[in-house]
Structure formats: structure tokens, C-alpha cells
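Task: sequence design from structure.
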């Protein structure tokens, strides 16, 4: 009887692995959070260098130089966060003996990619129209939607992180002039807290 139960357990585990990506590392979240906080600090430094009071509660209009510097900072932050995520995820996949590229991986990329792509294009459009104060909340909102969409293919914890990011993004729209601060909380602190909890739970 135990033999059949063991076989059923093994089959169930194989099915779960084939449909769910379980190699996400909590350290990926911590790395992404630290990268976001560094990027946020750099953005505040750039604004300070150009004597821009981000907290004046007014929709600001930035020069091409400022936009370029902030754009490069955002790109560098994104690259650092993605690099950190890939490194720790690959390391955990190898440790667990799970394939990194699978059907579940493709499902995650598809589910998260559509909201992220739409959000990226939308943020470029509102930047073109000088609606800079909406960029921070929009990135949080679309990122939250991407996490919620992808959560059915990985740990359920991703769903609640997505809801938190989405709620924070909507909340941020009420506070013009504080978007960058809330952005740092969402992409920085929430990621670090999530990463620590995930690391304790699954590692």
C-alpha cells in the first residue's frame, strides 16, 4: 500500500512542477528591492542637483537633460533588478534540480509580460505629454497587475505582493509630489519584506 501511495505522491509532485514555477528565490526580491532603493536615491539626487523640489505638490515639467538622466537611472535600476532576479533564481533552480525553462516559465513570462509591456508603453506616452507625476503610480499599478496575472503559475505569495503593489499605486495617485517616495516603498521596501518572508518560508 505504501508503495502505491509513494508513487501517487511522486506523480502529484511531478504534475505540480510541470504546471507551477517553484524556483523563485526570496533573495531575488531582496536584490530587486535594494536596487530600487538605490535607484530611488539616485533619482532624488538628480532632482536635487537641478534644484527641483519634488515635494512641492505641483506637477513639474522637466528639461530634456533631467528626463535623460532619470531615464538612464531607471534603466540601470531595471537591469540591476533583473540581473539579481535571474542570478538567484538560476542558483535556486540548480540547487533544487528543477529546469529553469519550462512550460510554467513560459506561462509566467506571457502572463506578466502583457501588463508590463502595456504599462511600459503607457508610461512612455504620459512622459511624452509631460505627465511625470503619474509615472510612479502607473508603474506600481501595472506591475501589481503583472504579478497578480502571473501568480497562478507560481507561489501564491506573489498574488498578495501584486495586490499590495496595485493598492499602493492607486493610493499614490492621490498624493501628487510624493510618487517617487511611494515608488521606493513599493519597489524597494515591499520587495525586501517579501523577499525575507519568501526566503524564510521556502529556503
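Answer:
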Amino acid at each position: 500500500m505504501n508503495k502505491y501511495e509513494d508513487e501517487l505522491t511522486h506523480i502529484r509532485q511531478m504534475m505540480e512542477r510541470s504546471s507551477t514555477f517553484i524556483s523563485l528565490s526570496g533573495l531575488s526580491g531582496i536584490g530587486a528591492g535594494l536596487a530600487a532603493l538605490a535607484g530611488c536615491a539616485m533619482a532624488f539626487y538628480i532632482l536635487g542637483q537641478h534644484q527641483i523640489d519634488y515635494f512641492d505638490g505641483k506637477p513639474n515639467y522637466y528639461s530634456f537633460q533631467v528626463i535623460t538622466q532619470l531615464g538612464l537611472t531607471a534603466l540601470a535600476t531595471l537591469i540591476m533588478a533583473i540581473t539579481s532576479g535571474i542570478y538567484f533564481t538560476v542558483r535556486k533552480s540548480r540547487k533544487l534540480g528543477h529546469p529553469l525553462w519550462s512550460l510554467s516559465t513560459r506561462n509566467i513570462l506571457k502572463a506578466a509580460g502583457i501588463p508590463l509591456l502595456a504599462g511600459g508603453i503607457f508610461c512612455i506616452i504620459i512622459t511624452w505629454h509631460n505627465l511625470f507625476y503619474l509615472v510612479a503610480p502607473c508603474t506600481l499599478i501595472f506591475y501589481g497587475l503583472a504579478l497578480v496575472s502571473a501568480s497562478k503559475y507560481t507561489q501564491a505569495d506573489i498574488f498578495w505582493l501584486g495586490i499590495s503593489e496595485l493598492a499602493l499605486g492607486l493610493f499614490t495617485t492621490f498624493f501628487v509630489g510624493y510618487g517617487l517616495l511611494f515608488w521606493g516603498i513599493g519597489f524597494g521596501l515591499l520587495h525586501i519584506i517579501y523577499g525575507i518572508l519568501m526566503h524564510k518560508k521556502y529556503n
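Residues 64-96 form the longest helix (33 residues).
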